[in-house]
Design goal:
Layout lengths: L7 E5 L4 H12 L3 E6 L2 H15 L3 E5 L5 H14 L5 E4 L14 H29 L3 E4 L13 H18 L1
Parallel strand pairs: 1-2, 1-4, 2-3, 4-5
Helix pairs in contact: 1-2, 3-4, 4-5
Length: 172
């Protein structure tokens, strides 16, 4: 029996990279999964692969975590399919770089919306499920860029620094 047998996790940004790795590790420990990302095909392939290889329930749900209505639909799917949430992994992320004095506002808004607004929206919804359960874990995927900035990374560094603050407040 795996360490996460009987648990349900929601992983955002699950279709590739760190999110995909986390989803696979959780599935390997017996965790049922609601997987979210913006692109359907790789997400659905991952859900089918994890269900087949690990024998867990893995459901794909396409959503943009920066969109409040999309997050509400994501959590409605979670409630309908699983009825609970034990682990939320706020992993979805975006990066765009340019010199600060030439950084387009649209790019700033996209990075901040994905990297900070999205985790806020998902955390808020997750707490509404976890508090009555009196248990649950929220994992925010941060970056060293929150403390060690690099040139052309203003939006990313600001968003990850903000995510660190959100994590601290959530822990309270």
């Amino acid at each position: 029996m795996g360490k996460l047998q009987g648990k349900v996790a929601l992983v955002t940004g699950a279709s590739r990279g760190i999110g995909r790795g986390i989803a696979a590790a959780f599935a390997g420990e017996g965790c049922d999964l609601l997987l979210s990302a913006r692109k359907a095909e790789p997400l659905e392939e991952l859900a089918a692969d994890l269900a087949r290889s690990a024998g867990v329930r893995a459901i794909a749900h396409v959503a943009d975590v920066a969109d409040e209505e999309a997050v509400a639909e994501l959590f409605a799917t979670l409630r309908a399919q699983f009825g609970r949430l034990d682990l939320l992994v706020n992993n979805a992320g975006a990066f765009d770089g340019a010199p600060l004095d030439a950084f387009p506002l649209e790019a700033w808004d996209r990075v901040l919306s994905t990297n900070l607004r999205g985790p806020f929206l998902c955390t808020r919804a997750a707490l509404q499920l976890m508090k009555p359960q009196r248990e649950g874990r929220i994992i925010n995927i941060g970056s060293i860029s929150a403390q060690r900035v690099r040139p052309h990374s203003a939006a990313y560094s600001a968003s990850k620094h903000g995510l660190w603050g959100l994590s601290q407040v959530t822990a309270l």
